[in-house]
Amino acid sequence: MKIWFATLLLLAIAAAGCASKSNARLREQNAYLAGQNSVLLQHQAQTDADSPGVTIVGPVQHPHVPWVTGLTLAQAITTANYVGPDRPKQIILTRKGESAAMDANVILNGQDIPLEIGDTIELR
User: Fold this and answer.
1) How many CB atoms lie within 10 A of CB 52?
2) CA-to-CA distance for 1 and 9, rounded, in angstroms?
3) Other C-beta atoms within 10 Å of 71: how many?
4) Do 46 and 90 share a domain, yes or no?
5) pTM of the predicted protein model
6) What does the DSSP assignment read for the chain?
7) CA-based end-to-end distance of the chain
8) How many domains does the chain have?
9) 33 and 80 co-located in one domain
């Protein structure tokens, strides 16, 4: 009876060791994958920041709008996907360090402005 109990105890200890090794291996794999994911996200953010386009400041889902030839203010705001509770009242366009404030109703009702690479648009 003692030999059977000792054998059972050894098997239980061995199984616990296997489970611990398995858990440790799983934690290592998860940590590795989390690190890889972090590097990929950093690379994607850097690529977005380095790519030419315009920046939209305000309640939008996509603050970086990639550059396309002929991009206009209305197109950029639409591409950025404005999510504010109300229509913006003022739009500030900054180009090469100079800013111009505009009534948003004028822009949103048909008068459009061509943009240049590097422009920043602030929606208020």
Assistant:
1) 10
2) 12
3) 19
4) no
5) 0.60
6) -HHHHHHHHHHHHHHHHHHHHHHHHHHHHHHHHHHHHHHHHHHHHHHHHHS-EEEEESSBS--EEE--TT-BHHHHHHHHTB--SS--SEEEEEETTEEEEEEHHHHHTT---B--TT-EEEE-
7) 82
8) 2
9) no
Q: Which of 13, 30, 50 is the last residue before a domain boundary?
A: 50
Please tell me whether residues 71 and 98 are part of one structural domain.
yes
Residue-level pLDDT, tens digit, the chain, 124 residues: 556 555 655 555 666 666 677 777 778 766 776 666 565 556 555 655 567 999 999 999 999 999 999 999 999 999 999 999 998 999 999 999 999 999 988 877 888 999 999 999 999 9
Q: What whole-number distance in Å separates Cα of residue 123 and Cα of residue 33?
A: 38
CATH number at residue 114: 3.10.560.10
Domain range for 72 is 52-123
